[in-house]
Specification:
Layout (H helix, E strand, L loop, with lengths): L5 H18 L8 H7 L5 H24 L4 H33 L27 H24 L3 H27 L4 H5 L6 H16 L1 H6 L1 H19 L8 H23 L8 H11 L1 H18 L8 H46 L1
Helix pairs in contact: 1-3, 1-11, 1-12, 1-13, 3-5, 3-8, 3-11, 4-5, 4-13, 4-14, 5-6, 6-8, 6-11, 8-11, 10-11, 13-14
């Protein structure tokens, strides 16, 4: 854990806990005030994940392309490493959700699009494996961003400018498309925009902007620590007010800029968070770091477990504050324990295999 950046672990920890607590509001039906408070920030968790993923993937690609010639072979190896990192867990919990739905809904029909991450490419499907919408956004981003950088590099053989043009291209295309879709179709900001792949790819690209500045203009990136943090907090507060504006679904402009404002807010926070490295080995530091490491498993586990507990206790939830709080806290704790077990015995072995497999590929190429 010595090589980990605590600030980024903290970012991931906050993101996953916002997601988990937000989804768990249905378990505390007897405390409507708590559900209302949670609703003010629960939507931010996935947005943090998007920017953080863009920052980390952008950093990986920049370092990779700077060391090796850009080509389909290098890109293919990047894809392979990503897919070995993300897909085993995804397909495991796709199976878990499938079995659960078959048991509870015998007439359930599986949509093959979940096998290729196209379930929410253009629209949101029925409420099956609900958290997978964000994973589809990320997988399509992993697929497209190295290809686009490669294509621009073919015309402008300067890696820095290729990344910058790719960023501008991503943001422009996604923003323009989102604007015209809102103008002509008048979609709801959440179900028909927030969770649909084609409207959300630019959310990760703002993290790539941070990676570009960190690599090519490190002094500027470092100097933005405190100014960026203040700007980020200001934009974040503004975005939360915008999210709960009663006129959000009546405004083309507000629906178009809501998600970029959130992404830019977290982008501005990256310089400060990246500077938080050596913060000791205290109890809370270890909790934050470990939950951050288990966050992908926790993201996939918490909803099926919540559904199971809701089914078991459906006759008791909502009838008493004490019981609801107990189930809520038990669910969070048990979700974290199961995510640790899944990480140790399933996720990490696949990651280790990936590292051994592709480190040998790199060594053979170097030889």
């Amino acid at each position: 854990m010595k090589d980990r950046v605590f600030g980024l672990d903290l970012m991931r920890f906050v993101a996953i806990m916002l997601v988990v607590v937000g989804h768990g509001s249905s378990l505390i039906q007897s405390i409507p005030e708590a559900s209302r408070i949670v609703s003010y920030v629960d939507f931010l968790g996935v947005e943090i994940f998007f920017v953080l993923s863009g920052f980390l993937i952008g950093s990986i690609l920049i370092n990779l392309f700077e060391k090796e010639n850009i080509g389909i072979g290098v890109i293919r190896n990047f894809w392979a490493r990503r897919w070995w990192r993300t897909m085993p867990n995804y397909f495991l919990f796709l199976l878990v959700n499938y079995i659960g739905f078959l048991l509870l809904k015998p007439d359930f029909n599986f949509d093959w699009k979940f096998l290729v991450f196209s379930q929410n490419l253009y629209y949101l499907p029925e409420n099956f494996f609900s958290v997978s919408w964000s994973l589809a956004v990320e997988e399509w981003f992993y697929l497209l961003i190295p290809l686009i950088v490669w294509l621009f590099f073919a015309g402008i053989p300067n890696l820095k400018y290729s990344f910058l043009i790719s960023v501008i291209f991503f943001i422009a295309i996604a923003t323009i498309y989102r604007f015209f879709y809102i103008y002509f179709s008048d979609p709801h900001w959440n179900e028909e925009l927030r969770r649909v792949v084609v409207f959300r790819l630019d959310s990760l690209i703002y993290g790539v902007v941070g990676a570009i500045f960190k690599f090519y203009w490190p002094k500027v990136f470092q100097r933005m620590k405190y100014v960026g943090l203040n700007l980020g907090v200001f934009l974040l507060v503004f975005a939360i007010f915008l999210r709960f504006d009663e006129g959000l679904n009546d405004s083309i402009l507000k629906r178009t800029v809501l998600f970029p404002i959130i992404s830019i807010a977290f982008l501005f926070c990256l310089p400060w968070l990246s500077s938080l490295k050596n913060v000791g080995e205290g109890f809370f530091t270890k909790i934050i770091t470990n939950v951050s490491i288990w966050s992908y498993s926790l993201y996939l586990i918490h909803v099926p477990l919540m559904d199971a507990l809701s089914y078991v206790f459906k006759g008791y939830l909502g009838k008493g504050v004490f019981f609801d709080v107990f189930v809520f806290l038990f669910w969070i704790g048990f979700s974290i324990v199961l995510s640790m077990v899944n990480y140790i015995y399933f996720e990490k072995p696949f990651t280790n295999f990936r590292d051994i497999r592709w480190s040998s590929v790199v060594m053979r190429r170097a030889a």
